Task: structure prediction
Amino acid sequence: MIRAYKLFKVRKNGTLGSLFINRKAILPIGIWLEAGSFPTKGYKYRPGWHATAKAIAPHLSTKGRVWRMVEIKKAKSIKRPAQQGSQWWLSAWLRIIPTVEERNNNDSTTQTGNTKMYETIWQAPLTGYTRTRRPTHDT
Result:
């Protein structure tokens, strides 16, 4: 497992989403998410979750967006130009790590018993696309 960073879109209701590919999906916090394949016109086809080794991507605006630490599994490294963050990871699995506040408020982990709610949110826009795994309790 690798710790990395990912820039997310923050919606008005506070939910997180991807910046460009499969933008409508709501991404839950603290749940392992399997990557899908979404060929998108105008973008190079690179299936998998995209993350960076550092919270740096000078070519992307941070307006309405937030960097989050993530855990990734089954990842491969891709070298990119410095203005694009230098090192990217493409991974088969991703989990957005809950912040201390989210843990204290019990907003996003299975400790609250609300995992079903997050599974429903994640699967609704992507029916037939992915399996959702519950996070392990070893963190």
Remarks:
- The chain has a mean pLDDT of 78.
